[in-house]
């Protein structure tokens, strides 16, 4: 009769232990020592749950686009601005066909322009990496500065052209994985070192002497020209000259507004371009030191007379209240973008079809925009107060 499984195993166990203890003493000790050194296998490492990356652009129906069906919505002006952008887009895929259609069409009514967008584009909701559809909208403008081509006792703060000793190093030329990254610097003997920072450029040693384009009166106005990236210089003979961004010194931007908040000079709610100017007027002895806390410095070029507004990153002159700066890694330059945000100041809804025509050093991330308000002080009042929540729908050409 076959013995039960438990009985068989008890017998084998007794035989095993009997065999072990029948070993000579030295071998028995060695066996026990080796057995004590055997460690249990470590538990498997904790594997973090896999997080699915959310695509930044999600196709939606036109009915889901905020403000698209508003009777007051303007389609005709954005259509004309899109046609202007086609001067830069029409040789690029996937814009060739839709730009060809735009050039063939003479839209004379809002309805014709609206049908053009609905026929040749598909809307996509723009989303952040965490799936949130809300982001931040700020504003920018073109400041007017009274200036001179030569320094005087009144006009003594210079705008500089790109300095002769500024080196720009494209790291992508050395390693493919560094494509798009650049360093700026200058030679010191045989070494390349970081370029001068703002406090050095504006300091007593004047390292850029002889590189001046224009001279202006107010250092705070000049600082905000650096922030905006372009401006108009009003000369003594009544002429105006547009200047635009040409290069920068390679240092990271540091917000003087945040410094004023951190030092409790003003609250976050009080922070605006206008209040920074007011603080500078009250504290002239501290102003240059504060401005020097931002090491980044912008160099300018004088634009041809045909430019009455600055060229955006597409090379197309920007259109006030229709041009938008975006992150081009998410939203293609030239694309129409339906924007849902709020008016700066009173907070009423602002739903508007705009064109992605520009970029900015601080404009990073999917739902992040900079609204171009236009030229002069009135535009500056709006731009300086704009810091609102926003949502985007980007219009991309239909395939086929």
Structure description:
With 400 residues, this protein is an alpha+beta fold. It has a domain at 53-156 and 308-400: Barwin-like endoglucanases (Beta Barrel). 28% of the residues lie in helices and 26% in strands. The chain contains eleven helices and 17 strands. The protein has helices at 5-21, 25-37, 76-89, 96-104, 110-120, 198-201, 219-228, 256-262, 273-282, 284-292, 376-385, and strands spanning 57-59, 121-126, 135-142, 144-148, 157-160, 167-170, 182-188, 191-194, 212-216, 230-234, 240-248, 298-302, 323-325, 336-342, 349-358, 368-375, 387-397. The longest helix has 17 residues, at 5-21. The protein is globular, with a radius of gyration of 32 Å.
H and E string: HHEHHHEEEEEEEHEHEEHHHEEEEEHE
Going by CATH, the architecture of the domain at 53-156 and 308-400 would be Beta Barrel
> Uncertain runs with pLDDT below 50, 5 residues or more?
1-23, 25-38
Head-to-tail CA distance between termini? 81 Å
Q: Based on DSSP secondary structure assignment, what is the total number of beta strands? A: 17
Give the strand line-up of the largest sheet.
3-16-13-15-14-17
Shape: globular
Number of helices in the DSSP assignment: 11
Might you state the CATH topology name of the domain at 53-156 and 308-400?
A: Barwin-like endoglucanases
């Amino acid at each position: 009769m076959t013995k039960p499984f438990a009985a068989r195993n008890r017998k084998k166990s007794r035989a095993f232990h009997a065999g072990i203890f029948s070993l000579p003493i030295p071998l028995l000790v060695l066996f026990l020592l080796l057995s004590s050194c055997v460690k249990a296998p470590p538990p498997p490492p904790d594997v973090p749950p896999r997080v699915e990356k959310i695509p930044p652009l999600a196709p939606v129906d036109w009915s889901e686009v905020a403000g698209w069906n508003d009777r007051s919505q303007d389609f005709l002006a954005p259509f004309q601005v899109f046609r202007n952008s086609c001067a830069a887009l029409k040789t690029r895929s996937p814009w060739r066909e839709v730009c060809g259609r735009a050039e063939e069409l003479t839209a004379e009514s809002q309805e014709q322009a609206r049908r053009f967008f609905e026929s040749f584009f598909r809307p996509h909701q723009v989303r952040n990496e965490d799936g949130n559809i809300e982001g931040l909208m700020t504003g920018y403008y073109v400041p007017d500065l009274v200036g001179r081509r030569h320094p005087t006792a009144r006009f003594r703060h210079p705008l500089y052209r790109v300095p002769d000793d500024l080196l720009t190093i494209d790291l992508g030329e050395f390693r493919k994985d560094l494509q798009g990254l650049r360093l700026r610097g200058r030679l010191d003997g045989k070494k390349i070192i970081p370029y001068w920072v703002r406090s050095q450029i504006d300091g007593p040693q004047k390292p850029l002497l002889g590189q001046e384009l224009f001279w202006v009166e107010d250092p705070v106005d000049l600082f905000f020209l650096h922030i905006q990236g372009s401006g108009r210089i009003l000369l003594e003979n009544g002429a105006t000259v547009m200047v635009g961004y040409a290069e920068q010194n390679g240092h990271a931007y540091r917000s003087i507004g945040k410094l004023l908040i951190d030092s409790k000079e003003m609250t976050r709610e009080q922070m605006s371009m206008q209040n920074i100017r007011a603080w500078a007027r009250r504290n002239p002895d501290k102003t240059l030191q504060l401005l020097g806390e931002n090491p980044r410095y912008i160099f300018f070029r004088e634009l041809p007379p045909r430019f009455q507004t600055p060229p955006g990153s597409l090379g197309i002159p920007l259109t006030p209240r229709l041009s938008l700066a975006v992150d081009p890694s998410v939203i293609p330059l030239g694309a129409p973008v339906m924007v849902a945000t709020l008016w700066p100041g009173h907070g009423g809804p602002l739903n508007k079809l705009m064109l992605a025509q520009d970029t900015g050093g601080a404009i990073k991330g999917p739902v992040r925009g900079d609204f171009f308000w236009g030229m002069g002080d009135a535009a500056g009042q709006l731009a300086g107060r704009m810091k609102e929540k926003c949502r985007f729908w980007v219009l991309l050409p239909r395939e086929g």
